[in-house]
Amino acid sequence: MTDRNTGAGSPQKEIKDSAVATKHAAQNTAAAAQSTMSSAERTTQLAMDRTIYAAERTYAAWVRTGLVALASGLGADKLLQGAVPDWMILGAGTILVLFSAFCFVAGIWRQLFTGGTDPEPDVRRMPRAVLLVVNGFLALVALTALTAVWL
């Protein structure tokens, strides 16, 4: 049996100990919640970085496809000469060159509008002005090549 005068085992002592334990548990829970929030924010940040890299790979694929279509459209005349009628050569070359111009426009569109806005990524995006100038030039080359196909 405990002595009420010493306070050992008294209900007030137990309540006080329980309150201290509850306070420590609340502090630990708050620290864990902060750590989890920071982890979630970082995960979101890294996902945005991956989105940027995926957009750059998609841009490169559009440009690569456009260049191949442009070369194929220009080469169609020499490759198909004598094998198929001239109107087929003209049609194939025209379609391929127009498709290349479409690829250049679609590539810049996909690069500029990646769909990700929040949060700001850690990685730097390619400068918009450079993309517009390069793809504008490639589209102009494709349209100039179209005149070469027709003439």
Give an overview in words.
It is a single chain. This protein is mainly α and 151 residues long. It contains three helices and no strands. It is rod-shaped and about 105 Å long.
Name some characteristics of this structure.
mainly alpha, 3 helices, rod-shaped
Number of domains: 1
Total helices: the number is 3
Strand pairing plus helix content: what structural class? mainly alpha
What's the main sheet like?
none
Report the uncertain regions.
none
Globular, elongated, flat, extended or rod-shaped: what is the shape? rod-shaped
Per-chain topology:
Blueprint: H1 11-80, H2 86-112, H3 128-150
Short characterization:
With 151 residues, this protein is mostly helical.
